[in-house]
Fold this protein.
Amino acid sequence: MMRVHWTLKLRHFHNCLSVLILFCCLCGCSQESDVDDKLAGPVARIDQAEDGMVEAALLEITPNGGDDSDVEVHATIPVELELSESDVSSSLLTFGLLDEAGEFIGAMGGEYAVGKNSIVFTPAFSLVAGNVYMAILDLTRVGGGLHRLEWSVAAAAVDPPQLEQIFPTTGELPANHLKFYLIFDQPMRQGDIFKFFSLWCVDKEEFVGRPFRHTELWSEDGKQLTLWFHPGRQKSGVNLNVELGAILEEGLEYELRVDDQWSSLEGAPLGETFRKRFRAIAKDYVQPNPADWQFELPHQHSSEPLLVMANEHLDYALLKRGLTVKQAGNEVLGRIEIMADERGMRFHRATGQWSDGRVELSVNPMIEDLAGNSPSRPFEVDINEVAEDNKKVSFSFELPSR
């Protein structure tokens, strides 16, 4: 916590010599006064009255219960100003936020208690950790001075964010790979984030230029970011792919890097650079075909999970909503657990047990592999050809008995 008192008072002095003597007594000399003004730590500025008397600072900020964010601002009106009760009003006292340059932004709302020689202001809201505020007592229009008092609220001690996982988790990605998902343990700061990402080619010992699509796609809680390689460079024959080339080259090793200076919403930086290393393998142009997948069915009258095992790595986020299950014509409520390396999913019933009726499964036709191919269409589509949608996504099974 830091308190700094400033006092500037406008006075008419009739005796210049007495003023000079008092000034020298207080400061030693005019040169030393300039130095004293720059000293660090709490500094109380003082007023000079016409009669040469020194009066104490007129502003005080007091925390309630030791909480720097819950304060009262107390202003004292000098009795020598001989103000009437109507002269003392809330308009004399202002309290508000300072910006990073130390400029006053504006007054806060709150409650005032006005007495004959005092004003007390209580802010309507708690002060924000890490911010600096200023109280201003302006008595210039009633024959007094201008008094200022700064108040800073210590930044809250927050834990640095953790990058818990980067999907896909596999160490081999097709050379036409599209998306990463970054999962954090707390909301991250958004806006102008792409300066914190880079792609390093390990084999060439150089950064890959312009690899990312600069579009921020966040989950509602601010903890999951979808980071795209630019599709225009990963898709054959389009302008960026022709002009700049593909981002990844088959057979080369890369590192996706997340810079340590990226911070959480509360302002704490990551503190370390995160790296995901992977090797680019052959491009993938083949659509996922659920008919080629394996289904492991639960037993009748059990609460066992139902397993769907794919023959390739699939998109993490789409897997989470990749399956609908029905029995006896009614949808079975449950949750999807993503299997290792995103090669399938386990469906867990929310309640109850499986009956002896048939189970109907529907795979989401929009589910994708790592190159953006889905059962409903390939990622690279020739607009001159009519795509034939021949991938089966609905299945019906009899559950085994024990």
Q: What stands out?
A: The chain has a mean pLDDT of 84. The first strand starts at residue 3 and ends at 9. The chain has three domains: 3-152, 163-281, 290-397.
